[in-house]
Write a structure and sequence with these properties.
With 69 residues, the protein is mainly alpha-helical. It has one domain (3-65): Orthogonal Bundle (434 Repressor (Amino-terminal Domain)). It has helices at residues 7-13, 18-25, 29-36, 45-55, 59-62, and strands at residues 3-5, 63-65.
């Protein structure tokens, strides 16, 4: 997949653990782990909005497009 989720990078920048984010966002650890490991096939805008609010970032800081060969 060409879309990369940089959740681990943003968590490190904010010095926040995945568990802490889970508690603040209200999603399961399993769902956030899927995002963090780039195994997600889709993300709802409402979920992206909530993560961005908690991490105080823009969607473009979380999502990155890379060309695959």
């Amino acid at each position: 997949m060409a879309i990369i989720v940089n959740l681990d990078v943003m968590l490190a920048k904010r010095k926040m653990s995945l568990t802490e984010l889970t508690n603040q966002v209200g999603l399961t650890m399993a769902n956030l782990s899927i995002l963090k490991q780039n195994h997600a096939k889709a993300i709802r805008f409402s979920t992206l909005d909530t993560i961005c609010r908690v991490l105080e970032c823009q969607p473009g800081e979380l999502l990155e497009w890379k060309e695959t060969t």
